[in-house]
Design a protein that fits this description.
about 375 residues; alpha/beta; 9-stranded mixed beta sheet; 5-stranded mixed beta sheet; 11 helices; 16 strands; globular
C-alpha cells in the first residue's frame, strides 16, 4: 500500500482519537481504522476507562477483519488491565498488517509491536508520530519524565493586566472565551489553583455543562469532572467554599506538620514539603498528581502561582485569553516574575493564535533554556 494511502488512513485515525479526549483519561485517547481490500471496514476510538480501546471498537464494527490493515495512533497495548491486550485481539482477528503512529511509553502496556511481529503480522511504526504525540502529550510526558503536561490559563487585557488593583477581574473576556475555557477544563485531569484565588473569587473550578454542551456535546463529558486541587499551606479554604462542594473530588494540599481535621465527603488532604522559595514544593505536587494518573494539569490561578511555575521551569504551556481592552497601569500583572535583567527574560514560542468571539486565544510553549 502506498505511503499516501497509509497517511490518509492514519490521519483519519487521528481524527477519531480526538473524539476521546474528554472521556478517556487516565488512558490515552487513541483512534483506529481497519482497511481491507482498499475499503474501510471498521473505525473506533477510546471509550471511558474500563471500556473498549480503539482497536476493540474498530474490530467490533468490522466483523470479519482477516487480512485487514489496522491503523492505530498508539502502539497496541500488550498487557491486561481493565481490558485485555489489544495486541492479542488483533492477532485473534487475523489482521495481516498493523501501522501505528507512536510507540507506547507505558512501561507495562508497551511491547505490542514485538508481540504482533512474533505472530507473523507485518508492523510499521512512526507514521505521523509527531501529530500523535501532540494529541496525547500529557500521557506521553507522564510516562517519560514523571509528570503530565502543565498548562496555565490566564485572561488578560491588551496591556497584560489580569485584574484591577482591587482584585476585581470579572469579566475581562467575553462569553465565547469563557465557553472555550470549559473545553480546556474538560480535557484536563486536574485543575490547580491557590488558596488566594479561592478566597478572592470563590471559584468552583468545574466544567459547566450548560456552556460545554454547546461546543462538543454533553455526552462527551460522560459525567466526569476533573480533580480540583488547591494549594493551601495552612488550610484556609472556608468549609462553605464552592471548590469543596459538588462537581467531583477536591484535593487540598497543605504544608507538612500541619494538624488537620477530617475532611468532608469528596475532599481529601495531602501534605507537601516546603519549597526553597517558600510555599509548597510544586515539583512534589506534580509527582503526586502523576501518582494519581493525571495526564493533563490546568492551572487557573493568580499571577503568583503562574509565575512560580514559570520560575521553576515546570510550565509547559501558557494559554492567554486576551481581551480588546485596557485595564491601566495599576492593574495586576499577567504573572509575578520579578526579573531585573534582560538576560533573565523567559522565552516563549507562539504555538497557536485564534479568534474566540471578540477575544484572542494565544497559546505559547515555554522553552526550558532560561
Amino acid at each position: 500500500m502506498s505511503d499516501r494511502i497509509d497517511r490518509a488512513h492514519m490521519a483519519r485515525a487521528l481524527q477519531l482519537a480526538a473524539r476521546g479526549r474528554f472521556h478517556a483519561a487516565p488512558n490515552p485517547h487513541v483512534g483506529c481504522v481497519l482497511v481491507k481490500d482498499g475499503r474501510v471496514i471498521g473505525e473506533g476510538f477510546s471509550q471511558p476507562a474500563g471500556g473498549p480501546h480503539a482497536e476493540i471498537e474498530a474490530l467490533g464494527a468490522a466483523g470479519d477483519a482477516r487480512g485487514a490493515t489496522a491503523y492505530v495512533t498508539l502502539e497496541p497495548c500488550n498487557h491486561r488491565g481493565r481490558t485485555g491486550p489489544c495486541s492479542e485481539a488483533l492477532i485473534d482477528a487475523g489482521v495481516a498488517r498493523v501501522v501505528f503512529a507512536l510507540a507506547d511509553p507505558h512501561p507495562a502496556a508497551g511491547g505490542g509491536a514485538a508481540r504482533l511481529r512474533e505472530a507473523g503480522i507485518v508492523v510499521a511504526g512512526g507514521l505521523l508520530e509527531a501529530e500523535a504525540k501532540a494529541l496525547v502529550r500529557g500521557f506521553w510526558l507522564r510516562h517519560t519524565r514523571g509528570w503530565g503536561r502543565v498548562r496555565a490559563k490566564l485572561a488578560s487585557s491588551l496591556d497584560g493586566r489580569t485584574a484591577m488593583a482591587s482584585g476585581e477581574s470579572q469579566w475581562i473576556t467575553g462569553p465565547a472565551a469563557r465557553a472555550d475555557v470549559q473545553r480546556l477544563r474538560a480535557a484536563s485531569g486536574a485543575i490547580v489553583t491557590g488558596v488566594g484565588t479561592v478566597l478572592a473569587d470563590d471559584c468552583s473550578l468545574t466544567v459547566r455543562e450548560s456552556e460545554f454542551a454547546g461546543t462538543v456535546g454533553e455526552a462527551a463529558l460522560n459525567g466526569r469532572q476533573p480533580l480540583r486541587v488547591v494549594l493551601d499551606s495552612d488550610l484556609r479554604t472556608p468549609p462553605a467554599a464552592k471548590v469543596l462542594r459538588g462537581g467531583g473530588e477536591t484535593l487540598l494540599l497543605h504544608r507538612e506538620g500541619l494538624t488537620a481535621d477530617a475532611p468532608a465527603d469528596g475532599v481529601s488532604l495531602a501534605a507537601l514539603p516546603a519549597s526553597s522559595a517558600g510555599g509548597l514544593d510544586l515539583h512534589a505536587m506534580l509527582k503526586l498528581l502523576a501518582a494519581r494518573e493525571v495526564n493533563e494539569i490546568l492551572v487557573e490561578s493568580g499571577p503568583r502561582l503562574a509565575g512560580a511555575l514559570l520560575a521553576a521551569g515546570l510550565l509547559d504551556e501558557l494559554i492567554v485569553y486576551q481581551a480588546p481592552c485596557l485595564l491601566g497601569s495599576a492593574g495586576r500583572p499577567l504573572v509575578e516574575l520579578p526579573l531585573e535583567r534582560m538576560a533573565d527574560k523567559v522565552p516563549l514560542a507562539l504555538a497557536d493564535r485564534r479568534r474566540v468571539g471578540d477575544d484572542w486565544r494565544l497559546t505559547f510553549t515555554v522553552t526550558q533554556d532560561h
